[in-house]
ABC transporter ATP-binding protein
Amino acid sequence: MSIAADLTVEGVTLTAGARQLVRDVSLTASAGEVVGLVGPNGSGKSSLLRAVYRVLRPAAGTVRVDGADAWALPTRQLARTVAAVVQDSAADFDLAVREVVAMGRTPHKRMLAGDTAEDAAVIDDALAAVDADRLADRPFDRLSGGERQRVLIARALAQRPALLVLDEPTNHLDIRHQLDVLGVLRRLPATVLLALHDLNLAAYYCDRLHVLSEGGIVASGPPAEVLTPALLADVYGVVGEVSVHPRTGAPQVTFLPDGR
Ligand SMILES: Nc1ncnc2c1ncn2[C@@H]1O[C@H](COP(=O)(O)OP(=O)(O)OP(=O)(O)O)[C@@H](O)[C@H]1O
């Protein structure tokens, strides 16, 4: 298995009953890239991510991971390759934090095998990466929203995936933990596809962005090419200025709430 996988989404259409959630979407994330999905509420980001981590089967189109049809891979092979951190997962585990993170090792183990020293080290690393080492023995279901989110990210890291898919991973996190988590994702060898609402964080941490609007992709490319005042007006209906931050070199969006 590669350390980082190539993701190719081609012509994907997603439906729920008669409703079309996403239509004819194509996008790529190359090995090792951090690729952001941005767009207004209801534009189809979560739905598209669900098709990639194999929860919502495309009505048309394909999702390929290193060339293989993700929807045809054996479950165990998929779990060794792709990890997901989803929105408001109904993860009410009656488990300690460390046990939740240890679940990330399951795809790599034989049935009923215990944790090896290597598993223990990977779990320790994952906990430390999200500043959750101090939470290791706490019951997961008593954690705060942000603490839970960090533990679920640690579980995904412990899976050592070649493709990591995250839906709003900074949700619930304070600013320091937002920056820390995105920094960790940035440094991973894996390919990362994530939905983000904060355009300044997306601009700083993502190599490329795909902008979704009403179920379709309306712009794709490096943040500096994609995030323009015209796009902010067209897609979000807001007035914003975009400058290059003098120290980070990343595009920085300033919103002008009253259009001034
Ligand atoms: N199972 C479903 N049945 C009907 N409509 C659905 C279903 N799942 C999603 N939708 C609709 O599809 C559209 C896209 O939803 P999705 O959750 O993908 O958007 P999103 O871009 O992730 O939004 P947000 O930024 O609010 O999280 C929305 O209009 C949503 O109401």
Q: What stands out?
A: The mean pLDDT is 93. Residues 16, 19, 21, 39, 41-47 surround adenosine-5'-triphosphate (CB under 6 Å). The chain has one domain: 7-221.
